[in-house]
Amino acid sequence: xxxxxxxxxxxxxxxxxLLLSGLAGCADAxxxxxxxxxxxxxxxxxxxxxxxxxxxxxxxxxxxxxSVIAVFCLGAFAGTLVAAWAGRWRLPxxxxxxxxxxxxxxxxxxxxxxxxxHVYPVVLALGMQNATLQDADGxxxxxxxxxGAVVRFGTGLANLLLHKPADSFWIQAPLWGAxxxxxxxxxxxxxxxxxAAFLFTAALAAGLALAVTVLTLAKPGSRLIAGTAxxxxxxxxxxxxxxxxxxxxxxx
Length: 252
Description:
about 0% strand, mainly alpha
């Protein structure tokens, strides 16, 4: 079976996945504490809140949560298009966009209760984050939520007994740990800095963006920062949108 991982090399893909998952957990905890228990990346929780608000006739609250879910979906939509368009610059472009959006929220007006404008840039950034990396099957790695990681870990354990798990099984538990650790860090940062704690997540995204920009310039087409894969979650017969430089030696 064709390996559709992005980046192709686990040397960079796994650390990036863990750091980005930690970033998402951190941002989610900051937003949850700062914005009246509104999730920045955990759309399952927001969906439950939406249902409860509708059931109780709290239309401002229902609109508030629904708008956040829509913006997160827009982020995933835009991130996938950027991933397809940017080619070998996919990682730098997506990470710089995320860093910029995480900063932008701090300068946005609060907006009315149903439409929290200052939340949208953060949610948009985290939606885009899910288009950044792909597993061996071409699926976007679940970087901003744990339900998928927990389910894939559980089914992977079963498949470990039945036959063998998918290649992406081994990263699921570390992803959960990274997201949980990031949430702890986010809670501590919010305690001391309030909403300004988002600057920490922006700085982490910018640091990762700078690192992959340097790698892209120094090693164009390297498996460290590229891959031969369709856009995230594309059908099996979709054409590749990124190109890896072929090497006669061991993959870099």
